[in-house]
Write a structure and sequence with these properties.
15 strands; 3-stranded mixed β-sheet; about 250 residues; about 20% helix; L-arginine/glycine Amidinotransferase, Chain A; about 25% strand; 5 helices; single chain
Length: about 250
């Protein structure tokens, strides 16, 4: 049960965020602000208290606050972003998380880790090895998890930004899976809801208490989740998609 979500207001520099999809165009800042406001309202409908941090203009991607920390039931881990332009984003989050956690740990160089590569499934954490998260960073997180009675394992990522770009846990033993992750042995034991190739972006839904939050504009995924018995809420993330961001990236939930 999540009680708290931390978000960060988009900076005006958002328009210069990292993107692998320049064909989508640059984000509209005013539209992004409105989408962010509605995202917060959607989180509140799920029963969580939302803390909004101020924008950081020096970091165009800093609204993707999920990447700078991993929150577990016992401790919080401040990460070490793998993208050069994001190094330093993690500076503020330790003090913020100390309001909620007694123990704050941190990834040490040469390790890199971004929260978008970390998927919590109960007390087990799947960690994607990507361009942003290396084996050293993943290993440091696994060591910390094991010292607190939890566990972790690594999953190699090909062709995607983060692990949760293509697969997310919906609770109750169910995974939402984009085509890139279909057939991976690591997830054979889960019931899988496949995402059609033309709606791959929608693999990054988030389960928040009694609801699954779904990005607007992906009717097949929305219908599949409702057919599986989930209560859903929709919110638009079109401006964040332009800089490789999705629903999970925009908050830390614990």
């Amino acid at each position: 049960m999540f009680k708290t979500a931390i978000v960060k207001k988009p900076a005006r520099s958002l328009t210069e965020g990292i993107t692998s999809s320049p064909e989508l165009g640059k984000p509209d800042y005013k539209k992004a602000l409105e989408q962010h406001r509605l995202y917060i309202e959607t989180l509140k409908k799920c029963g969580v208290e939302v803390l909004e941090l101020e924008a950081e203009e020096n970091y165009p991607d800093s609204c993707f606050v999920e990447d700078v920390a991993v929150c577990t039931r016992s401790f919080a881990m401040v990460t070490a972003p793998g993208a050069a332009s994001r190094k330093g984003e993690e500076g503020e989050i330790s003090d913020v998380l100390s309001r909620y956690y007694d123990q704050i740990l941190a990834i040490k160089a040469p390790g890199t880790l971004e929260g978008g590569d970390v998927m919590m499934v109960g007390d087990h954490f799947y960690i994607g090895l990507s361009d942003r998260t290396n084996r050293e960073g993943a290993g440091q997180l696994i060591d910390a998890l094991e010292s607190h009675g939890m566990s972790g394992s690594m999953v190699t990522i090909k062709n995607l930004l983060h692990l949760k770009t293509g697969i997310t846990y919906m609770e109750e033993g169910i995974m939402l899976v984009a085509p890139e992750f279909t057939g991976l042995s690591e997830f054979d034991s889960f019931r899988q809801i496949p995402i059609p190739e033309d709606e791959g972006y929608a693999a990054n839904c988030i389960r928040v208490n009694d609801f699954v939050i779904v990005p607007s504009g992906f009717p097949k995924t929305h219908r599949a989740l409702e057919n599986a018995g989930f209560k859903t809420l929709e919110t638009d993330t079109s401006e964040f998609r332009k800089i490789d961001g999705g629903l999970s990236c925009l908050s830390l939930r614990f």
